[in-house]
Structure formats: C-alpha cells, structure tokens
Amino acid sequence: MSEPHDPEAGTRRPPPDGPGGQPPGDVLEADADRSAPGPGPRPEHSGGRASRFRSARRIPAVLTSLVLLGASGLLLYDIAAVRAGHPAMQWRRTLADELATRRIDDVWVLTGSAVAAAVGLWLLLLALTPGLRSLLPMRRDQEGVRAALDRGAASLVLRDRAVEVAGVQSVRVKVRRRKASVSAVSHFRELDDVRDDLGTVLGAGIEELGLARPPRLSVHVRRPKKG
User: Fold this and answer.
1) CA within 13 Å, CB half, 55
2) Which of its termini does the chain have fewer beta carbons within 10 Å around, N or C?
3) pTM for this structure?
4) What is the pLDDT of residues 141-167, one digit of tens each?
C-alpha cells in the first residue's frame, strides 16, 4: 500500500474563538498510558489463524546459493582432477598445509571461525524469522483469504481520527506491531479531557482496522512549547 502522506507529520488546527482558550505558553503534560481505553473484545472469526507474512528473502538466498555452488563446483573439479592423476590445485595444497600447521588459537583461525559463525547465525536468523515487519496481519474472516495493513497506512488512519478531536492542535502517530504511540499537542481544553477523548476515539479506530493483534494504545498529550 502506498503512503500519500508522512504518517508522523502533524496537522495544525486553529485555536477556537471566544473564551475558554488557553495561551500557547503552557507546558503542562499528561500521560495516558494508564487510562486510555484499549480495543474491546473481538468477535470470533472462522477464517483460521492470522499469521505474519514471510519474506521471500530472495537476495540472501541467491547470494548463498551462488557462493555454495561456486565453492562446490571448484572443489569437485579439483577432486576429479586429482583422481585422474593430475596434481591438486595450489589453493587446496596451501589450505591443507595451513590447516595442518597453524594452531587453534592462531589469530587467523579465530577470525575465520568468528566470521563463519556470524554468517551461520545470520542465515539461521533469516530462515527462522518471517520478516516484512511493516505489514500488520488482519483478521481472517474467510478461509483461504489473507490480508495485511501497512503500518504507515494504519498510522495515517489513526492520525486523521486524532486531529478531529476537539483541542488537538497537532499529533504524531507511530504504529508498531505491539504498540501504537500517539503524541498530541493541545492548545485548549483540559489535558485530561483531551487525553480521554483521544483514548476513546483511537481505541475504537484500532478495533475498526481489523488487525489480528491490535496494538496497545499509548497516548501522550502536552501543551505547545513557548516561543
């Protein structure tokens, strides 16, 4: 999905006319982690378990395959040449001599072992983790149908809802897999009231996104900085 706007960009709203507005110099701050209502209970769905999408990892797979193919082909050619009565290649004789004469605690042996272990761990990590962290799996309402929502698109939807709350001057929204962080600036109304309204509106918005694992909502509200 494309992102038409920066999901973390703030949107300003003009202060209201008449009494009740507060000067922009206030720097009070409120934290809504403890009281922002989260999404309510979700209905049961019969489409199956919504698992994360797995990356194809084409580039690491192609590079690993090419390296293994080249090394295996070169080694097999050299072994076949030796069996046919030709001398072994210089690189294999040198490698055999080095492995036979160098000690285990040699710097080059330790360096090569560390590099090989790091590459192996990296390949294992790629094989065991799904990847595609920017995609949030959605609930499966029908068997055989899978869908996902881009994190940027989810942030944009929640930001558009947040700026509609009275008193919100600007807002930044960042949606992760387990947490949706909202940082808002309020130029009028009590901070607690703005925080509660944001928690209610965004809690309902997260539920309406249809995510299989709705993220926990974290809302922070503060006054504009002076100057």
Assistant:
1) 16
2) C
3) 0.58
4) 777 777 888 999 999 999 999 999 999
pLDDT at 19: 41
Tokens of 33: 């982690």
When pLDDT is averaged across residues 79-105 and rounded to a whole number, the result is 85
The two structure tokens encoding residue 227: 């100057």
Query: Is the Cβ–Cβ distance between 219 and 195 less than 8 Å?
Result: yes
Token representation of residue 112? 């090569």
Please determine, for residue 98, whether its predicted confidence score (pLDDT) is greater than 90: no
Token pair, residue 121, equals: 């761990």
d(CA 49, CA 104): 50
- The predicted structure's pLDDT at residue 2: 40
Residue 211 tokens, joined: 């995510």
Evaluate if residue 88 carries a pLDDT over 90: no
Q: Is residue 215 within 8 Å of residue 178, measured between CB atoms?
A: yes
Residue 174 DSSP symbol: E
Other Cβ atoms less than 10 A from the Cβ of 76: the count is 10
